[in-house]
Amino acid sequence: MNRIELGKHGEDLATAFLESAGWTVIDRNWCCADGELDIVAISEEAGENTLAFCEVKTRSGLGYGSPLEAITEPKLRRLRVLTARWLNEHRVVSTHIRVDAIGVLLMPGRDPEIHHLAGIAR
């Protein structure tokens, strides 16, 4: 699997993971001049809807660290900008917004490992 196929497969697994947990995915691979948002999803938590902008990182091994280690401070700053642009373009107003990270590890011969960190940036 090349890098692009690996990333797409990881995003597909992350989407299925969120949906199996009761989330509603409302956008995938949204692009603008500043970059791309992998997944935009809604979850009901404590009786209120939370809009989460999920960055997905997929790796096929641990040679460069865990997938979540690839989400650096510059990446978080860009995710905040992308989140604001998405909200503005879609004219969404919500008080419960966050940026999440989903790490997908696809080691040969093993089941995929998926780790979801909620609220890495607000």
Describe the structure in your own words.
A hairpin with a 2-residue loop joins strand 1 (24-32) and strand 2. The mean pLDDT is 93. The protein is built from two helices and five strands. The protein has one domain: Trna Endonuclease, Chain: A, domain 1, CATH 3.40.1350. The radius of gyration is 14 Å and the shape is globular. It has a five-stranded mixed sheet with strand order 1-2-3-4-5. The longest helix is centred in the first third of the chain and has 18 residues, at 3-20. With 122 residues, it is α+β, with helices and mostly antiparallel strands.
- Biggest sheet, spatial arrangement of strands: 1-2-3-4-5
Low-confidence stretches: none
Which bin fits the share of residues in helices? 25-40%
Terminal residue distance: 34 Å
Major sheet characteristics: 5 strands, mixed
Task: From the structure above, extract its key features.
30% helix, alpha+beta, 122 residues, Trna Endonuclease, Chain: A, domain 1, five-stranded mixed beta sheet, globular
Write the layout of secondary structure elements.
Blueprint (H helix, E strand, L loop, with lengths): L2 H18 L3 E9 L2 E11 L2 E12 L13 H18 L6 E9 L7 E9 L1
Parallel strand pairs: 3-4
Antiparallel strand pairs: 1-2, 2-3, 4-5
At a glance:
The protein is built from two helices and five strands, in the order H-E-E-E-H-E-E. By secondary structure, it is of the alpha+beta class.
